[in-house]
């Protein structure tokens, strides 16, 4: 097998690992809100335990990237792809951490129908999950246009976060049994907002892999 063919094979394996990690974090986000809506606390505990699997996969991908750099000594565009993959898995790991953080809040927010007290939370969760999925697809496919377009969608998550804060403020103005829970729900929204930010980071690393520029600054 020629050096180039071997490199492309290794790169395919790397992309498959990133896809697997992406699916795990997407599933964690989705399962969080199923657990939230259904008051399924066993599922929430499983999400917290499953974060270890995501962390283990991050370390495995990092090892593969470093091995590629040492054995294949990629240059130019090839080096950018591998080095950006190292950054992408860090963002994916942090998304997994935030999903685990939300699951911990689910365990604390034990209360019937509390999921719907703040009415913009479900839409925000759906938007954040879609951003994560689309950002991973853009990176795997090295789709620069999709990455640039997706970065604009972060405004949707930010706008929903603003609406959640307004929902909380309005609810805090009136007597309610959900006062303490609203504070925790605001934290859920904050984690979702951070998840959207990490998805944007993945898009920025896609841009770097394709162009050598990060946030319009030429790096490599």
Quick summary:
This protein is mostly helical and 220 residues long. The protein has helices spanning 3-38, 41-72, 76-108, 121-140, 144-152, 154-172, 179-211; strands spanning 213-214, 217-218. α4 runs parallel beside α7.
Q: Which secondary structure elements does this structure contain, and how are they paired or packed?
A:
Layout: H1 3-38, H2 41-72, H3 76-108, H4 121-140, H5 144-152, H6 154-172, H7 179-211, E1 213-214, E2 217-218
Antiparallel strand pairs: 1-2
How would you describe what is shown here?
With 220 residues, the protein is an all-alpha fold. Helix content is 83%, strand content 2%. It contains seven helices and two strands, in the order H-H-H-H-H-H-H-E-E. The protein has helices at residues 3-38, 41-72, 76-108, 121-140, 144-152, 154-172, 179-211; strands at 213-214, 217-218. Strands 1-2 form a two-stranded antiparallel ribbon. The radius of gyration is 19 Å and the shape is elongated. The model has no long low-confidence stretch (mean pLDDT 89).
Keyword list:
single chain, two-stranded antiparallel ribbon, 220 residues, elongated, mainly alpha, 2 strands, 83% helix
The main pleated sheet reads as: 2 strands, antiparallel
Q: Over all CA atoms, what is the radius of gyration?
A: 19 Å
List the secondary-structure elements in sequence, H or E: HHHHHHHEE
Helical/strand content category: mainly alpha
Mean pLDDT over all positions: 89
Order of the strands making up the biggest sheet: 1-2
- Estimate what percentage of residues fall within beta strands: under 5%
| Total DSSP helices | 7
The best one-word shape is elongated
- Distance between the amino and carboxyl termini: 29 Å
Share of residues in helices: over 70%
Unreliable parts: none
Instruction: Report the strand count.
Output: 2
């Amino acid at each position: 097998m020629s050096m180039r063919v071997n490199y492309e094979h290794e790169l395919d394996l790397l992309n498959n690992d990133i896809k697997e990690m992406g699916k795990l974090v997407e599933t964690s986000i989705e399962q969080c809100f199923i657990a939230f809506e259904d008051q399924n606390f066993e599922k929430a505990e499983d999400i917290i335990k499953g974060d270890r699997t995501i962390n283990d996969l991050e370390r495995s991908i990092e090892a593969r990237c470093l091995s590629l750099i040492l054995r294949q000594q990629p240059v130019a565009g090839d080096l950018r792809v591998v080095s950006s993959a190292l950054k992408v898995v860090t963002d994916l790991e942090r998304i997994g951490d935030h999903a685990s953080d939300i699951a911990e809040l689910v365990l604390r927010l034990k209360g019937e129908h509390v999921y719907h007290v703040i009415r913009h939370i479900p839409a925000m969760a759906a938007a954040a999950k879609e951003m994560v999925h689309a950002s991973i697809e853009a990176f795997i496919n090295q789709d620069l246009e999709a990455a640039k377009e997706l970065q604009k969608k972060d405004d949707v998550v930010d706008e929903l976060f603003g609406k959640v804060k307004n929902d909380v403020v309005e609810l805090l103005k009136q007597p309610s049994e959900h006062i303490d829970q609203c504070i925790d729900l605001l934290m859920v929204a904050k984690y979702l907002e951070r998840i959207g930010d990490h998805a944007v980071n993945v898009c920025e690393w896609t841009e770097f892999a394709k162009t050598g520029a990060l946030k319009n600054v030429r790096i490599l």
